[in-house]
Amino acid sequence: VLELNRAELHRSVADPVLGSVSFLNEVMSRYPDAISFAPGAPNLVHLGDFDISRLTERYVAHLEADRGLSDAQARRLLYEYGPSRGLINDLVARALRADHGIDVPDDAVVITVGAQEAMLLTLRALFSSPADLLGVVTPSFPGITGAARLLDIGIVPIREDADGLDIGALLERCRSVRSGGQRIRALYVAPDFANPSGTLLSLDRRRALLDVAEHEDLLLLEDNVYGFTALPGNRLPTLKALDRGDRVVYLGSFAKICLPGARVGFAVADQRVRDADGTSRILADELAALKTMTTVNTSPLCQAVIGGMLLEHGGSLSLLGEVKASVYQRNLSSLLDALDRRLAGPGAAPGSLVTWNRPGGGFFVRLKLTVPADEKLLDISASEFGVLWTPMAPFHLDGSGREEIRLSCSYLDPEQIEEGVVRLAAFIRSLAG
Ligand SMILES: Cc1ncc(COP(=O)(O)O)c(C=O)c1O
User: Fold this and answer.
1) For residue 274, what are the β-bridge partners?
2) 262 C-alpha to center of ligand 1: Å?
């Protein structure tokens, strides 16, 4: 039997994040009755009247009315290979224009297999030299660091504070990297309720970040997967909407706002790319070309379902997100309220000095224990107290965060959240004792 040597495989297979994800899955399967604050999965409560046929028919009717196709032509579009750039680009571009003030031509949008593929394609296109490094806010979403490792792209962690990315730290890293003969080519940032930290970048910091991008010649990869969970009236403009210098590539996903099973996301890349002969195309053209070498095209059937969903909500991402946002806001309030009552109130664990942040949206709360939150502790929490959470250390790129855990409230209902916090409080009390 041929045995391959793991050490000879690409180093991305040994990404420590992969190990922590499989450990978490394994613990969840060993303790099926535990309440799990671990998965950052969307709540499917909204999908009560989800009907694939109805949504597909809605999209087929749109193709007939909008593009003048016959019924047979419209259906063929869904059954065949499709354009690598996508089918629903016009709907997405229209929604971004109306809802977010992101005014780009339809062909600047590339429909991808989740935001994850949008990240992979964008990184592949932008990074061509070992001297080009990716700045990443730490703690960070493992999908972006994993994609960078897959492509052998060097990562520069950038610190954040309670209000998100630390602009001073970014400037300092840009300069120190440059003095070492390299450069930060692009920075990945999730300004709206980042995963895992829940931070929200203020309007001033958004503007300051765009200024830094201009002065330091950076591109910004803006991940806005959780922006829709903000309370109406509390939404801040995206970096892309504020961008006057074509610095931002915008990464979107329908996984949390619709459903993850469709695997539909997108990149908005309207930057001009100049050729040696003086002609130019847009970056989205290059991403679409690369996509023919990864997934060929995003499933037209899945795009039709998502397109149908958008159309059923007046073509608006905001309307699509509003109903869902109320569930996530309710869950987040339930979680923060239960933590206040059970961990900080009169019945709080004696001597427990745990602290947590208070995000205004998103799926996650970050809680700091007084002891290292490692896999051994997670096992005790699951087996003795019936509650699961995610250790934060693997999200940190600088070795910090060892005592932190991430609590996700998206997938649970308020009763489960309350019971989960009761169990968590008992677990935390046991640490103090
Ligand atoms: C910040 C962030 N970006 C992107 C994604 C992935 O999006 P998709 O499922 O569309 O690939 C996630 C999923 O957890 C996420 O948390």
Assistant:
1) 280
2) 13
Condensed to tens digits (0 to 9), the pLDDT of residues 55-93 reads: 999 999 999 999 999 999 999 999 999 999 999 999 999
Name the residue at shortest CA distance from atom 3 of ligand 1: 225
Tell me the C-alpha to C-alpha distance, in Å, between residue 52 and each of 5, 68, 90, 261, 303. Answer: 45, 23, 21, 12, 11
| CA gap 329, 390 in Å, rounded | 21
Q: 125: Cβ–Cβ under 8 A, 6 or more apart, which residues?
A: 283, 286, 287, 290
Instruction: Give the chain's mean pLDDT.
Output: 94
242's CB contacts (< 8 A; 6+ apart) are 206, 207, 210
| 420 Cβ below 6 A of ligand 1 | no
User: What does the chain come to in residues?
Assistant: 433
pLDDT at 323: 84
Ligand 1, pocket-test mutation among 111, 189, 195, 363, most atoms within 8 A of CB: 195
115 CB within 6 A, ligand 1: yes
From ligand 1's centre to the CA of 343, what distance in Å?
30
The protein residue whose alpha carbon is closest to atom 10 in ligand 1 is 114
Centroid of ligand 1 to alpha carbon of 38 (angstroms): 15
Q: Which helix (H) or strand (E) holds 272?
A: strand 272-274
Residue type, 153: I
Condensed to tens digits (0 to 9), the pLDDT of residues 250-280 reads 999 999 999 999 999 999 999 999 999 999 9
User: Ligand 1: does its nearest atom lie under 6 Å from the Cβ of 40?
Assistant: yes
> 267-306: b or e for each residue (b if 16 or more CB lie within 10 Å)?
bbbbbeeeeeeeeeebbbbbbbebbeeebebbbbebbbbb
Atom of ligand 1 lying closest to residue 253 CA: 10
**Secondary structure of residue 343 in the 3-state scheme:** helix
